[in-house]
Amino acid sequence: MIIKTLVMLSFYILPIVLVTTGVANQTWQLFLCYVASGLGMAGIGMGIMHDAIHGTYSKNPKINKLLGYTLNFVGANATVWKVQHNVLHHSYTNIPEGDDDINAPFFLRFSPHAKKNGLHAYQHWYSWIFYGLSTLSWVTSKDFIRFNRYYNMGMFKGKHVYRNTLIKIIGWKLVYYAFILGLPILFSPFGIGEIILAFLALHFVTGLSISLVFQTAHIMPEVAFPQANEFGVVEGERMLHQLATTSNYSEKNHFFSWLIGGLNYQVEHHLFPDICHVHYRKIAPIVKATAAEFNIPYYSKKTFFDALKAHAKMLHQLGTMENQPLPA
User: Fold this and answer.
1) Where does residue 274 rank: exposed (0-12), middle (13-18), buried (19+ CB within 10 A)?
2) Of 40, 88, 113, 198, which one is least surrounded by beta carbons within 10 A?
């Protein structure tokens, strides 16, 4: 984990330093540096902050809190993400209105229970573009929208908490923009337009990378999309729910697994979110054997490419299947 942390932070920081100091002084070098930084940003999101905010990077809570701030350093917000991911996504996986990962804007449909419109028939063609724009939304508006909604849901208590958290969100975003845009604009030999274009390229790479890794774990043809009952209660056993709504992929590719923070073992992560991802590879055969013993679903694709094909198929199915409305 320490080696991975140093590698991913270096991949994110050093390219921007090269641009800012003028070492990278040609346009192709500018874009190469920003794309490399985008890959580092994705690596931080998948391999450092994810474990840290789950409290599994270290046994020391202070280290987890410190490394959780790496998410703030790449433009998002750890406080908001902890509610969105740890609380809502892990508690209500694939449940409409509960899981924010499937609460998509009107032009995307990630659940058979979501309202369908004419655009959805083409989402298996255009979704990839919006995946590439996802982190750009994250570092601009999404944190503010979600924080306000979570406050109204009662996830944050008191006006002073609201005010202080909002100030921190704004402050961290200013730090991010100062590093990723401000310093290069002030000190590099490149014009503002070139740097902004490189910045957009960075986010497209980051957004596409992160979205493909996460979407291929839950928006798949085999998995279930349960519903809460008419009282808003999720029925059933937690571990069975996670097995039914989650899929692994590319379990044999250890280097790929290292790069994406073990998120190809999403089944194990959802069953045991309090265990560091470096252990998932050893846990997976036990989970798979136990699932087979009790005739419980255990979904997995052989390769990442297989998972991508299945995800594209699911996007097409969701775009054409009729609504399965929520209970009244």
Assistant:
1) exposed
2) 113
Q: Is residue 239 part of a domain?
A: yes
Interval 27-63: pLDDT, tens: 999 999 999 999 999 999 999 999 999 999 999 999 9
Read off φ and ψ for residue 301, nearest 5 degrees: -105, 145
**How deeply is 298 buried, as exposed, middle or buried, from its count of CB atoms within 10 A (0-12, 13-18, 19+)?**
middle
Domain count, the chain: 1
Which residues are CB-contacts of 231 (< 8 A; sequence separation ≥ 6)? none
**Among 40, 33, 34, 39, which Cα is nearest to 6's?**
40
The pTM assigned to this predicted structure is: 0.92
* Domain span at 259: 2-320
In angstroms, the Cα distances linking 73 to 53, 185, 300 are 14, 18, 33
- With 0-12 CB in 10 A as exposed, 13-18 as middle and 19+ as buried, what is 260? buried
Q: Count the residues in the chain.
A: 328
For residue 21, tell me if it sits in a domain: yes
In a domain, 143, yes or no: yes
Taken in order 117, 119, 123, 129, the sign of the CA dihedral is: negative
CB atoms within 10 A of CB 115: 10
The reply to whether 132 falls in a domain is yes
| Helix 27-44 × helix 192-218 angle, to 10° | 30
